[in-house]
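re: the backbone from monday

yeah here it is again, tokenized this time
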């Protein structure tokens, strides 16, 4: 017969002796301090990665994106080390979208010769925002 508070083999089961079942949650990236404007309409919050360290880190270590990340001076991206897929837009020097890709984790994009920056968001965000090839993107 089992006694209350004991396992099948008689071992006491308490929170301090049971193995941890959850790991620390990784943070969601964002929202950024600026507004992302697509074809004249503010659609989401955006953070802009300008420094070398910000561009290098990007979204690594996050569990999701609240808004978007604009990476300056960037013509190619990767999702190696990411745990979720991304929408990626490549922008020319005027902020016009030249290409859009949905990238699963663990992939590398082709370098885009005309791209001067990239915009990253959770997959499905660009469709919801109406962002596509030819859209003009800026911050406010």
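seq for it, each position gets an aa:
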């Amino acid at each position: 017969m089992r006694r209350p508070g004991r396992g099948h083999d008689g071992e006491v089961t308490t929170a301090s002796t049971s193995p941890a079942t959850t790991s620390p949650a990784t943070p969601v990236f964002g929202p950024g301090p600026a507004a992302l404007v697509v074809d004249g309409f503010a659609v989401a919050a955006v953070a802009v990665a300008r420094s070398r360290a910000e561009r290098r880190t990007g979204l690594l270590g996050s569990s999701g994106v609240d808004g978007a990340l604009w990476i300056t001076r960037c013509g190619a991206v990767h999702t190696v080390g990411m745990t979720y897929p991304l929408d990626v837009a490549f922008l020319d020097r005027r902020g016009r979208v030249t290409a859009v890709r949905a990238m699963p984790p663990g992939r590398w994009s082709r370098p885009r010769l005309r791209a001067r920056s990239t915009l990253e968001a959770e997959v499905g965000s660009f469709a919801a925002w109406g962002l596509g090839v030819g859209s003009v993107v800026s911050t406010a």
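The two ends are 69 Å apart (CA to CA). The domain at 28-139 is CATH 2.60.120.1140 (Jelly Rolls).
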